[in-house]
Structures are given as C-alpha cells and as structure tokens.
C-alpha cells in the first residue's frame, strides 16, 4: 500500500516536497521492517516514528494531531449526511480532507507546540487535558 498507493498519491499532492516530514506513533503495528523502509524511502531523514530518524513513543495521542484533532473532526464531517455505501463514504472523506481550511491546520499546529512544551515541562508524563479544552 505504501508503494502502490501512498507514493503515487504524494507525487500528485502539490504540498509534498523535500521539506515534508512523516509522523506516526511508535506502535509496533506501524513499525514493521518493510513498512519503515518504505517510509524512509519516501521521506529520507524525515521520519518521526519508532526505529527511524526521530524516535516517537508508542501510544502518544496527546502529541499526535491525527489522534487529538483529525479523526474526530473528520468523523463529524464525513458522517453528517449519513453515507449509505463505501463509495459515498470515500467521496465524503476525500471532499472533507480537501475542505479543511489552512487556518484550522495552523491552529492545530500551534496547539501541538503547546502540547510539546507542556510534555517537556512534565518530563514526558501525561498531559493535563484541561489546559487544551476549548
């Protein structure tokens, strides 16, 4: 999938360039040898994951924008019109991903910075979710 789907999709994505990083948590299901090697080929020296350029701890949802923001945000948008088949679901996912405003992404990244600083101050312990509430 990484070589046959992700690699071609990245080449067609205008935001993908030599400054693009790949991040995933260090869960063992994400870090099989073949998977890590394929990711390292696509993102040379720009992989944040277990067994890669920058080690990322497993099960760190407080520090993963996909976990603390994207999945919940997309679920709310994608299922809003109650898709009834796989084709409609895929279409909803694609259109909602494209519709995410740049300003929202900038706020998520700013929040990640706050989370990273808090994690550093707490020497890697769990974050106090109250400080990130709306």
What features would you describe in this structure?
- The structure is a single chain.
- By secondary structure, the protein is an all-alpha fold.
- The protein has 2 domains: about 1-60, no CATH class; about 60-134, no CATH class.
- Helix content is about 50%, strand content about 5%.
- The protein contains 5 helices and 2 strands; from the N terminus they run αβαβααα.
- It has helices at about 1-10, 35-40, 65-80, 85-100, 100-120; strands at about 20-25, 45-50.
- The chain has a two-stranded parallel sheet with strand order 1-2.
- α2 (about 35-40) links the parallel β1 and β2 (about 45-50).
- It is globular, with a radius of gyration of 16 Å.
- It starts with a helix and ends in a 13-residue tail after the last helix.
- The model has no long low-confidence stretch (mean pLDDT about 85).
- Give the C-alpha Rg: 16 Å
Proportion of residues in helical segments: 40-55%
What is the residue-averaged pLDDT?
85
Largest sheet composition: 2 strands, parallel
Indicate the structural class: mainly alpha
Measured between the Cα atoms of the first and last residue, the distance is 37 Å
Tell me the overall shape.
globular
Protein name: Tc1-like transposase DDE domain-containing protein
InterPro entries: RNaseH_sf
GO molecular function: nucleic acid binding
């Amino acid at each position: 999938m990484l070589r046959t789907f992700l690699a071609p999709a990245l080449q067609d994505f205008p935001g993908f360039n030599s400054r693009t990083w790949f991040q995933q948590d260090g869960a063992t299901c994400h870090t099989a040898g073949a998977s890590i090697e394929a990711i390292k080929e696509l993102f040379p020296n720009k992989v944040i994951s277990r067994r890669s350029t920058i080690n990322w701890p497993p099960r760190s949802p407080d520090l993963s924008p996909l976990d603390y923001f994207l999945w919940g945000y997309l679920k709310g948008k994608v299922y809003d019109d109650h898709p009834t088949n796989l084709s409609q679901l895929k279409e909803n996912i694609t259109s909602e991903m494209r519709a995410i405003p740049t300003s929202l992404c900038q706020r998520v990244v700013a929040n990640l910075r706050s989370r990273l600083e808090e994690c550093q101050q707490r020497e890697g312990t769990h974050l106090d979710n109250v400080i990130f509430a709306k």
